[in-house]
Write a structure and sequence with these properties.
single chain, about 180 residues, alpha+beta, Peptide Deformylase, five-stranded antiparallel beta sheet, two-stranded antiparallel ribbon, about 25% helix, globular
């Protein structure tokens, strides 16, 4: 297993639609283990494959950030079946470290995703889990949480990132 660099906005891999996972191979299983280790090391509660430069519809979620075993969700080709309610909370992203904003997300969602055995399951998320599922699935479609902000807030974050890039303290691929 390996801890991989997490790409930073506005890296192109973060802004592109991911491809479906066609087959769960040993390489995909290794990738998932690397993603889990990378997410826990960050630390974070979710990670999409394109955040580490792999354009596959694959994500991992662990609301305990590695504190509890058996709490990890592996989402292969996830899709949202239903969103309902409204939940406003601070949200951040491992690809935009240091930036958080209040984001409106559904309070409840039902998704469908395969696991590493290829078994397709329906999963329900409420509160933070609904937020995490929606956030990671957004990533797989090339969207970041800042797209849920007002145009003004989004523009301010983009300006701050550009300023940091020019100053040399924001690498798109951190070491």
């Amino acid at each position: 297993m390996a801890i991989l660099p997490i790409l930073r906005y506005p890296h192109q891999a973060l802004l592109a639609e991911c491809d479906p996972v066609r087959e769960i191979t040993a390489d995909v299983e290794r990738l998932v283990q690397d993603m889990i280790e990378t997410m826990h090391a960050a630390p974070g509660v979710g990670l999409a494959a394109n955040q580490i430069g792999v354009r596959l519809k694959l994500a991992v979620v662990d609301l305990t950030a590695g504190e509890s075993k058996g709490e990890i969700f592996v989402l292969v080709n996830p899709r949202i079946l239903e969103n309902s309610g409204r939940y406003v909370e601070d949200e951040g992203c491992l690809s935009l470290p240091g930036f958080t904003e209040r984001v409106v997300r559904p309070d409840r969602c039902i998704i469908e995703a395969a696991d590493l055995h290829g078994k397709v399951r329906k999963l329900e998320g409420v509160g933070l889990m609904a937020r995490a599922f929606n956030h990671e699935i957004d990533h797989l479609h090339g969207h970041l949480f800042i797209e849920h902000l007002s145009a003004l807030k989004r523009r301010l974050i983009k300006k701050k990132v550009q300023k940091r890039i020019r100053a040399g303290d924001w690498d798109l691929i951190p070491a």
